[in-house]
Structure formats: C-alpha cells, structure tokens
Amino acid sequence: MTGSRTTGLVPALIFIALVVAAVASLGTPLITSVATSFHVSLGSAQWTLTVALLSGAVATPVLGRLGAGPHRRATILATLAIVVAGSALTVLPLPFAWLLAGRAAQGVGLGLTALMMGVARDHLPEERGAAVIALISVVSIIGAGVGYPLAALLAELGGVRAAYGLGLVVTAAALLTAWRSMPEAPEGRSARVDVAGAVVLAAALLLVLFLAGERELWSRHLAVAVGLAVVAVVLLCVWAVIELRSATPLVDVRAVRHPAVAGANLAMFAGGIGMYLLLTLITRYAQTPPGAGYGFGLTTFVAGLVLIPFSVLGFVAGKLTPRVRARVSAPLLLAGSAVVVGGGFGLFAARRSDLAELFVAMGVLGFGVGGFSAAMPGVILAVTPKSETSSAMSFNYVVRSVGYSLGSALGGLILATGTAPGHLFPDDSAYTTAALAGIGAMAITTLTSLALARRHTSETTP
Fold it and tell me: Which spans are transmembrane here (predicted)?
C-alpha cells in the first residue's frame, strides 16, 4: 500500500484512535450532570465511566485476536457501528439504564487501538509504521484531554444530552473514515477465536475492574471483596491454562512470557497506576472549593482546560520519541519517561498553591505519559511477529486499563482515608500522601524499564 492511499491511511488511523479514546472518556466530566439529570446518586452516575472501561477491557483482547485474522476490516467496521449505536443511545431521551448500555457500547471502541497498530504495521514501511504506531499509542491516552473540556462545555451550554451528542457526531465520522480508508488484512491469517478463553478472561477482568472501582465494598464487606479477588485470581490462572493448551489462543501466553514483553507489561501496569493517579489528583484538586482550605473551585469546563497542557505536551513527546528512538533504546526511553512522570508527582507534592503550578505539573505529566506511550510499542513489537501485532498490543492495553482502574481506586482510597469524619473534603496532606504513593509506583516502573534496558544492551552487544 503506497502513494496517496498510504497518505490517507495514516490520518485515518490517528483519527479513529483519537475518537474512540475521547468518546470513552466522556463519562469523566459528566458524572455530576448525569446524576442531576437522571436523578441518580453520584455512585450510580460513576458507572457511566466505569462501564465503558469494563467493556473496553473485555472487548480489547477479543478484537485483538479478530484483528489478527483475515476479517480485520469487517471487525473494525462492525465495532465502530456498535460504538455509533451506543452513542445514539446516550443521546436519545431514554431511561438511565439505556444510557449505561450506550456507554458500554462506546467502551467497546477502546479495543480498536491495537487494531489500528496492526494495520499500520502491515501496510506502512517499517520506519514509517513504527512512528505511526507510537503516535497511535499516544493519542489513545491524550484523547481524554481532548474530550474532557469539550464535553464539559457542551454540558454547561446544552445539558448532558448535548455533550453526548458530540460522541455521536465524531463516532459517525470515524465509521465513515474507516469505511473509506481501512484496507483488507494480508492473506493467510487464521480466523479462529478462542471462545472459552475469551469468556473466562472477560469474567476475570470484570471482577478485577469491579473490585477496583467499588471502594465501599472493601470497607463495608471485606470478606466478600477478598472472596471475589480470590475468584478473579483463580479465573486468571484457569485462563492461562486454557491459552497454553489452545491451538489458536486469544493471547499467545508463551509470547507474553518473553522477558521483554513481560517486563514491558509490568512497567505498563505500575506506570498506569501512577499516571492515572496523578491525572485524577490534579483534576479533583482543581475543582475543590477554596472553603476546604485549598483548591480553586473550578467549574467542570475550566477544570477541563487544565488538561490542555497534558494533551499538547503528550502529543509533542509522541512526535519526538521516534526521533530519539534512533539514538536511545525503547526500554531506556520508558525509564526516562517514568522519571518525568515521577517529577510531575514531585511538583504536585511540593507546590500546588497556585493554579499555574497545576498547569505545569499537568504538562510534565503529559510529556512523560506521551514519551512512555510512544516507546512502549517498540519494546513489545521488537519481539512480536507482524501477524500478532494486534493481539500482543491488545493484551498490553488490557494491562493498562487495569493499571488505570487501580490508580483511580488508590487515589480515592488515600483521599477517603484522609477525610475526617463529618467532613466532605479530604485534608490537604492526603494529596501529598497520594503523590508520594505515585512516586513509588513510578519508581517501580523506572527500575523495571532499566532492567529491560540492561537486557536489551546485553542482547545487542556483540
């Protein structure tokens, strides 16, 4: 695939990855508006975000395997059609349950990121493909920074339905773009999907992400939470056995056990916890009213603007990383990016009395996340066959989703612990404690990445 078709393919891949990420994140700024509009509790409204993450985590490995087969184009189009249908449900004047169903359908689109990477690796020259894959990885994260302020502004101007209307428009545009631009997969690919493995993995992920999001379950019904956690671990072990015995596994567990892939996924898990933790800390701190003794009392829209440095510098880092990659190994870039994110935590822990300081911390976070996301595919794909690109990267994104969910839960737990009885907001010191926990997560990420870098050096040195 060359010439003008290649030129048109690249922006299509980037656009689709950006759209599905932005639409899945629409639940974040609209939680309060949903609670008010549908007359439900904030806990129930929180599920408009959680259900999208859940469906995305479950759908990602399945779509990754389908994307590795001969029907990748049909898979992409069908998935986007589901996302468009879900977007329509969020706009129509239907009860709250239908809104949740629509958000679940929108979340399925998160599984398309890995498929976009597979298309890029199959149909672009190697060097160009690597750069585009890195950029896809970046926009899949900064999409939240793009969707947040736009959704918040539309919610303030026209209500929650208007905000979700944005999702319907851009997902319809993404479907049209995919129909016009997505090529067929190369011939000779297997079309079989490990259904048993998909069902068991879906059940395990549902439990893991449910437990991460239900903090009250741990505080009020600890025995039940521990029991469900044990069941989740058992299901993951059963899934691994199924995959090892399957001729066409959902995820090639043997490849995942490769030291480079296993190390990259561990770094992604710990890094995901830290990255999402800082993102949630800063946005929550910015919206806390000054009456709490800190915070700026920003509206949802203005708080969304705090994400602009995150998105802009994340994109800049994503564009720079392939150039730096020519001189520095991908694992070393992971380590350096993790240190940058840790620096963002340090800035937030030390200085947050001025709004400008939050912008700086968010910009540092964005630059670190952008570099980390752009470098990650290089580590995994260096030891992954082309035909397994979608499957390998989909597993990495499942790991990222779990890390993000745990990061959000960790932040909520620390802030809840730092909230005195009878008080609505946590003590300011709780934010410092959460930031220090984030520094710990990024330290683990850095050490894991450095170990990968040392292994990479030893394997490439004659």
Answer: 12-32, 44-64, 76-98, 104-120, 132-155, 161-179, 191-212, 218-242, 263-282, 294-316, 328-348, 360-383, 395-418, 430-453
